[in-house]
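Entry 14. Ran structure prediction on the chain below.
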Amino acid sequence: MKIELKGKVSLVTGAARGIGKSIAVKLAQSGSDVIVADLMEDEAKKTAEEISRLGVKARAISVDVSDFNSVENCVKESINAFGKIDHLINNAGVTRDTLLMRMTPQDWDFVLNINLKGVFNFTKAVSTFMMKQKSGRIVNVASIIGLIGNPGQANYSASKGGVIALTKTTAKEFAARNINCNAIAPGFIDTEMTRKLPENIREEYMKLIPLKRYGDPDEVADAVLFFVSDLSKYITGQVLVIDGGMVM
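Output, structure tokens:
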């Protein structure tokens, strides 16, 4: 069954590269117009140009997800350009890993401000418009680390655990206006970030994955496509784990 998103508008944060880019491209392949929202302006423009060649409208907008004014301006520019936002994909995220006893307040704030506050900022800004149109889909990209924790990632695990909790509250508050909010929790996905891990660490993690491989960004994008489609219209407040069976 082909999922058809023609006439829809999707805003994807952190979409210049990595999982975010895969999500943006996947939605465009199904017919959705796409806003590529990212702080990396040049890379965002390249991604938007690539998406435009798929026959849909695409626009790159520079945004700092941790700054509400920047987010609000991004959303207003998106509405002015496309007239609406049907799907919000909160994907932007960072890491700054170190053991808790060595972690600085700056390390903590940097990760929480982008990974968690960024989701709040965009959800708040977009909800004003979704409430008026009485429809919308919000998909938050969390992580299995938000479910199980991980040594050296106190800030990251706290931020992603917070995203999961925020997802459930958002789902309860927005359901009456026909706005669904769900989260996905990827495991170890083959991205630039995981490729930087030492080989011995990659091998140890591989032993924990029953399917014996890292996930592909496109497989994460498939889950997002499901959540914005009519196939999931009676699903809200849920967390879909995409980890090859690692934490089942």
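The beta strands are 9-13, 33-38, 58-62, 87-90, 136-141, 179-186, 239-242. Will compare against last week's run tomorrow.
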